[in-house]
Amino acid sequence: MKILILGPIINEKKSGGVAVFDEGLYHGFLERGDEVKIISDDKSKRINNIVVRSSFSFCKIAKSIQKEEPDLVICSLKYALGIRAYKRKWKKATYVQVFHGFACPINGRFKAWLTNSSLRWAHKKFDHVVSVSQLTNAINKKINLINSDKIITNGVDLEPFLQNVKKEYDFVYIGRLFKDKEIDLICDAFVGLKKIRPNLNFAVAGYGDEERLFLPGGKYHNDCITFLGKLDSDGVKDLLSKSKFFISLNSLEPFGIVFTEAIVRGCNVITQSSSGCASKFLKKPYFHACDSLNSEELIQFLENIHKEFVNISFDERKSIAQALSFKRCADEYASLCERK
């Protein structure tokens, strides 16, 4: 089978869950023995991708699709808006739109309206619309009036997969540094926790608008919190392996790739109970649902939870990684392909 993936790739300029998804799915298809390429607006140093410098150059992307003659085209984010141009150039493919999350007014009412209006227009033209979690599907269906016909949870990389790594950090946050990620809540709580338990340590890795909080003169530029900046993919895996607890408390975010990566690399997870595919782990002793609304509640929660750290066995981590692998993910996307 011949597949094209349209979306961002990982490089020194940017990363994020969708880029990790694109490259993970790319390797999942390769593992199946398929022929697969990624079309993106940046050149990757990791894979040989097709570059169209502006992701809004839909006619140029359409010409690339026509040239490649794929069986299956998988589109994420703004790349989906070119669906009419793609189909005019190459009708023989099955076109799949992927929803990784949902637009909401917290990031600007007009931006949310524009995004949802564009996606509602585009998704009617696709052969299939996939959500990566139950939460994403529910919000888009009930609030944004955009339906999906399939839910395919994200995969996770198996490598590097280490058995015994010294835990250097008690708590770690890895991800984009934006207001809706509850960075203030998490950091305020840890500063308070540090006064009670001075030996505990916390590391933050990421980039974004709230990065200024960790730079000289910022609210959290102190010895209490270790700021590591933006890490590459291997750096993220290494940091997770060296940490006891991964924490992320954005109640509007599906249970993303980084959560599963954290678990398979030995982290216990702390997140909101609303997170998308949390149901897979709700009864596990290393999964902690936290719905604290203020730093005082979160301080008490973290102090109690730190005493309950669970070593996840190598066999269980490997079993989870294999069950949620990107090859499994690729198999599910491939099953959508309709021969034309």
Q: How would you explain this protein's 3D organization?
A:
By secondary structure, this protein is α/β, with parallel strands linked by helices. The chain folds into two domains: 2-155 and 325-334, Glycogen Phosphorylase B (Rossmann fold); 169-322, Glycogen Phosphorylase B (Rossmann fold, 3-Layer(aba) Sandwich), CATH 3.40.50.2000. Helix content is 35%, strand content 17%. The protein has helices at residues 17-32, 58-68, 83-89, 109-123, 134-142, 183-196, 233-241, 257-264, 295-306, 314-323, 326-334, and strands at 2-6, 35-40, 50-51, 72-76, 94-99, 128-131, 150-151, 169-174, 202-205, 225-229, 243-248, 268-271, 287-289. Strands 3-2-1-4-5-6-7 form a seven-stranded parallel beta sheet, sandwiched between helices. The protein starts with a strand and ends in a 6-residue tail after the last helix.
- Portion in beta strands: 15-25%
Low-pLDDT parts are: none
Query: Oligomerization state of this entry?
Result: single chain
- CATH C-level class of the largest domain is Alpha Beta
| Cα gyration radius (Å) | 20 Å
The CATH superfamily of the largest domain is identified as Glycogen Phosphorylase B
Mean pLDDT: 85
Counted up, domains total 2
CATH fold field value of the largest domain: Rossmann fold
Q: State the distance separating the first and last CA atoms.
A: 13 Å
> What is the strand tally?
13
Report the CATH architecture of the largest domain.
3-Layer(aba) Sandwich
